[in-house]
Amino acid sequence: MDKLRMLGGTPLNGEVVIAGAKNAALPILCACLLTDQPVVLRNVPDLQDVRTMLKLLQEIGVTVNFPDPADPSHLVLSAAVIKSSEATYEMVKTMRASILVLGPLLSRMHNARVSLPGGCAIGARPVDQHIKGLKAMGASIHIKSGYIEAETNPTTDRLKGASILTDMITVTGTENLLMAATLASGTTILENAAREPEVGDLAELLVKMGAKISGIGSDRLVIEGIEKLHGAEHSVIPDRIEAGTFLCAVAAAGGEILVKHCRPETLDAVIAKLKEAGLQMEVGPDWIKASMQGRPKAVSFRTSEYPAFPTDMQAQLMAVNAVAGGSSTITETIFENRFMHVQELNRLGADIAIEGNTAIAQGVEKLSGAVVMATDLRASASLVIAGLAAQGETQVDRIYHLDRGYDRMEQKLTLLGAKIERIK
Ligand code: EPZ
After folding, report:
1. Cα-based torsion angle of the residue sequence 34, 35, 36, 38 in order, rounded to the nearest 10 degrees
2. What pLDDT, in 10s, does the model give residues 274-312?
3. Is there a contact between 315 and 381 (Cβ–Cβ < 8 Å)?
4. Ligand 1 midpoint to CA 80 (Å)
5. Cα 93 to ligand 1 centre (Å)
6. I need a surface site. Which of 1, 20, 187, 259 has the fewest CB within 10 A?
7. Do the beta carbons of residue 232 and residue 78 sit within 8 Å?
């Protein structure tokens, strides 16, 4: 397994270009199942999770072409022929976002067999709301030997529009039901819908494909189902979490960086907290110039659904708090076990205690390098940030977690002057 080894203490300086958003690309790739015509995508990030999703789609029958073999961010998907409506356990267990083929397959093929995603390091992560919504749209669904077996009403053969209120705000739940509703007969109303920008980006693509959706960006989506969708071209929005991760890196390690190709308006809560921490920022239409002189100030925060502070940035800002002046409380309200990075940060000399879903961090002057282990995607990013700020050498093991959601992180950090290398 690959490791990252770094020598901390060097401030970051230079430019970093942000890739397309992983959590927009994954549902957007599944949307191609809704039409038999080609969908052309640009700015798709070159990530392990994207490669996993493309493999799953190819097993279902989607053809994937790269017009320019040297450019993995530009691809053409065609679901003209679907040869299987199944997503096997082998596929789904490596990436729970595979559940996103359920809605499109059911809507296009009128049946689907998708393995229940197991839990993962950060929580049980059930999909009961996905199932509840599809049942409301007339699907008959049975759970058999770990698989979701779904089919539409054999007589009408199509899902029917319904009014659905999910028990909690769910990002992929909203995305699954949104995709299913585009081809249902009648109107679907999704109340309590997720407002994450990645949901909006998926909706923008679906509208380009001919879908009739209103309320995009709000917590109430209204979809008027139609018979067929056609192909479209779309460029995936920049990854707000990757951008936020680099902002936290410079806040912890010091220096001055220019973050390019990002959408600052999707980072309001993160920018506000980092400003409070003392990060100087100048914000342009698609760039953020950030500089940190001296030590960050501790900032307390709690995660919540968009537009509030994102859970996917919790571990990264905790790494900043680990070296900040003062103490801070960090409350995680979305997942039940998203503090796996705390023990590893403490191995680097941090002073963080956990009380239920709240972590209390006493900032320390200096972390000291150590061997630490990544446990999940954003925890890995947190450990890299802490390693950049620590004195001496840090080694982060199991960075396959990092590779799921970041496109060559160590190369981008090297361009910013960090002393970091990948050990195969
Ligand atoms: C999406 O996961 C993201 N993944 C996650 O990003 C992100 O952390 C999460 O949304 C929250 O923003 C993708 O978009 C591929 P949820 P998702 O359904 O959709 C509970 C990363 O780091 N829930 O919004 O799986 C659930 O247990 C990843 O890039 C149910 O109980 O999250 C959680 O507590 C990690 N039943 C809460 O709701 C359901 O049917 C929010 O989950 C669905 C969700």
Report:
1. -110
2. 999 999 999 999 999 999 999 999 999 999 999 999 999
3. yes
4. 30
5. 15
6. 1
7. no
Distance CA 12, CA 327 (A): 25
List, for residues 140-150, the tens digit of each pLDDT value.
999 999 999 99
Pairing between β-strand 86-87 and β-strand 111-115 as defined by DSSP bridges: parallel
**pTM of the model as a whole:** 0.98
Residue 43 to residues 19, 71, 73, 255, 282, Cα–Cα distance (Å): 7, 10, 5, 28, 25
Helices (H), 280-339: 314-322
Is residue 287 classed as helix, strand or coil in its secondary structure?
A: strand
DSSP state of 336: T
Which residues, in sequence order, are CB contacts of 179 under 8 Å at separation 6+?
Answer: 27, 30, 31, 34, 100, 103, 104, 107, 202, 206
Q: Is 398 left (phi over 0), alpha (psi -120 to 50) or beta?
A: left
Q: Per-block average pLDDT, block size 10, for the chain (424 residues)?
A: 96 98 98 98 97 96 97 98 92 90 95 87 85 97 94 86 98 98 98 98 98 98 98 98 98 98 98 98 98 97 98 98 98 95 98 98 98 96 98 97 95 98 96
- In sign, the C-alpha dihedral spanning 137, 139, 145, 146 is negative
Closest CA to 244 of 3, 22, 4, 6: 22
Give the integer Cα–Cα distance in Å for 230 and 285. 32
Nearest CA among 160, 143, 135, 183 for reference residue 33:
183
Q: Confirm or reject: Cβ of 269 under 6 Å from ligand 1.
A: no
Active site residue 120: yes
* Two structure tokens written together for 362: 């006493």
